[in-house]
Amino acid sequence: MKILSTNTCYVPHDLSQVIRTKNEVAAELGGMTEQQIQKIWNSVEGLYKTGNYPLITMCLRRKGEILINRSIGYAQGNSPDGLAADAKIGSPDTPICLFSASKLVTAMLVHMLDEQGTLNLLDPISYYIPEYGVNGKRRATIFHLLSHRGGIPRIEGEVTPELLFNNDEILKRLCAAKPVSASGSHLAYHAITAGYILGEIIERVTGQTAREFLTENVEKPMGMDYFNYGLKPEFRDQVALNYATGLHPSLGTDHYLNHVLGGGLQLAVDVTNDTRFMDSICPAGNIYTSAEQAGRFFEMLLSGGEYHGKQIMNPKTVFRSTLPTSGLSLDRTLLAPMRYALGPMLGSNPVGLFGPMTGQAFGHLGFSNILCWADPERDISVSILTTGKSVVGTHLPALAKTLYQISTNCPKIPKNQRRSLFATDRTENDLV
């Protein structure tokens, strides 16, 4: 990474060289106009032109119809060091690591088990993992983990790639850990920790790994080729590589990421490009998939757990999982005001994570500038996947503009015309 630089990538003068589309339908089928779609896509092109992202893939559904399913940029070989001779242009099908957006999927697997009666969200974690109930964690519940109030927001000690490839060692550390706050008392984003505990609970109550459970209950029923923890070997030649972009991390970025993740920017990039990570199960951060398949999952949630005639989850389970667990509160890890449900991050009014006036939206962010969400008021499901890991950089105004264009060009649906599951508003006062 260049120190005295904005660390941006090559952007071709003619963007049509690196844009690919797939299986889009006319805007009118989703209750929109071609002009509205073009305004949204123009903002994505503007985001790409900042040079912070080697690749952006996006899928937008409205009223269940795919109106945008496009990619722009290079899956491999474009970095702040220049464009490689063998650089590979991406496509809408390119597998990309979701990073923390994987957490929402893991949370929904836990909700499925609660729906089946296999576990109870209010049970102590130690009921399922007895060795976890030491050093003040005996009363910590699954509910606490899902709402980022479990008291173990970070892995103590040095976080190395080798550690992240070793689930047994991480679980051992987390079981022995002393919480930094009493369970349920403070909101602090659990960037990595909660995922490993939830994944272990899934395995202990089902006898299946989280990967096997996801395959059986989501990936196969929804007809997805790759929507799972890690990436199957046959798809790895297509995977999008991640690159460190943006202002030099020594200017505060690494300090912040160490606070959140327990490691710096380069660690996050190196780990996700490593085939050992693609072999492993990291419930908090290593689902690899395409923008369309990620959007398909959110479309299923927006449809009350149903997708193409198959009931993946119970509508009541989806509704309960997306209810706020608190009002807007300061997150002690992210150092920002946040709203959470039991797994999802929530939008806000007048402005939130997913753009302006998105108080009903639910979804999740992924490191960095990966956004996946559904908005019942607009009847949209959106996934924006990126491979430039820029935290601070020239992209921020353009990213805000993209979210603005999505919110303003996807008109809200009158309450009496919304899908019945989300026909009523869910406010910050609708606490679980």
Could you name the key traits of this structure?
432 residues; alpha+beta; 8-stranded antiparallel sheet; 3-stranded antiparallel sheet
Structural summary, described in words:
The structure is a single chain. The protein has 432 residues and is α+β, with helices and mostly antiparallel strands. 30% of the residues lie in helices and 17% in strands. Strands 1, 2, 3, 4, 12, 15, 16 and 17 form an 8-stranded antiparallel β-sheet that branches. The protein has a 3-stranded antiparallel β-sheet with strand order 5-7-6. Strands 8-9 form a two-stranded antiparallel ribbon. Helix 1 (34-49) packs antiparallel against helix 13 and helix 2 runs parallel beside helix 6 (193-206). The longest helix is centred in the N-terminal third of the chain and has 16 residues, at 34-49. The radius of gyration is 20 Å and the shape is globular. The termini are far apart.
Strand content bin: 15-25%
Please tell me how large the radius of gyration is: 20 Å
The parts where pLDDT drops under 50 for at least 5 residues are none
Most strands sheet: 8 strands, antiparallel
In whole angstroms, the N-to-C terminal distance is 45 Å
Q: DSSP helix count?
A: 13
Averaged pLDDT: 92
Shape: globular
Q: Helix content range of the residues, please?
A: 25-40%
Oligomer: single chain
Secondary-structure element order, as H and E? EHEEEEHHHHHHEHHHEHEEHEEEEEEEEH
Q: Give a count of the beta strands, DSSP E runs of length 2 or more.
A: 17
Which secondary-structure class do the elements indicate? alpha+beta
Give the helices and strands, then pairings.
Blueprint lengths: L18 E3 L12 H16 L5 E8 L2 E15 L2 E8 L6 E2 L4 H15 L25 H5 L14 H4 L2 H10 L16 H14 L3 H10 L8 E2 L23 H9 L3 H8 L2 H5 L7 E3 L1 H12 L3 E2 L2 E2 L3 H7 L7 E3 L4 E3 L6 E2 L4 E2 L2 E2 L5 E5 L3 E6 L4 E7 L9 H14 L23
Antiparallel strand pairs: 1-3, 2-3, 2-17, 3-4, 5-7, 6-7, 8-9, 10-11, 12-15, 13-14, 15-16, 16-17
Helix pairs in contact: 1-13, 2-6, 5-6
